[in-house]
Amino acid sequence: MKWNGFVINPNLIKVTTAKSVLIGMPTTSSYKGFSFWHSSKLVKTGKMYMLLYTDDFVFHLKKYGHGRFNQREVLEEIDLSPEDIKDRIASTIRHNRARGEHNVTQMSNIVAELVMLGWEDEEIGKQLGMQADEVLRLKQNTGIAEIFKNHEYSHSWV
Contact at 8 Å (CB) between 8 and 49? Predict the structure, then answer.
């Protein structure tokens, strides 16, 4: 069993309790209005929130009513795999980049979090629609030496 994780925007957290966290899906996604509960022990905080899960984990999304009398009524339920969620998050980031809503600092933080989660530079570039040199520049912008621990330097650096 392997542990994985992905980064989410803190604005998506609707409710935090001692045992769990209610996380809403982005309003720009096709899952607008859906949310899911995740164990608070598996949510790491920092600049961005990171959700931890295992390979066989399934996210149970629920859409609740918005009216005065049906707030607790479940209108629709969907089960998603972690791969589906990662694809949706990457899609949202690509969409926001195309609209110019992500600045260099935000993108640097996202890339740094993904590197710390164990993503390779090629995977980051592929998922977020970046070229290798752009990923490298964003990593350099963070100033975090840890994210270069597995980086191969050319002989010109020696």
Answer: yes
Q: In terms of Cα–Cα distance, which of 138, 106, 97, 153 is closest to 9?
A: 106
Round to whole Å and give the CA distance between 96 and 117: 22
**At a CB cut-off of 8 Å and minimum separation 6, what does 65 contact?**
71, 72, 73, 75
Domain extents for the chain? Answer: 1-81
The CA–CA distances, whole Å, from 69 to 65, 72, 131 equal 8, 8, 50
Q: What is the phi/psi pair of residue 48, to 5°?
A: -125, 160
The pLDDT of residue 118 is above 80: no
Are 41 and 26 a contacting pair, CB within 8 Å?
no
**Could you report the per-residue pLDDT of 18-27, keeping only the tens digit for each?**
899 888 887 7
DSSP one-letter code for 81: -
Which pTM value belongs to this model? 0.59
**What is the per-residue burial (b if ≥16 Cβ within 10 Å, else e) of 79-90?**
ebebeebeebbb
Other Cβ atoms less than 10 A from the Cβ of 59: the count is 19
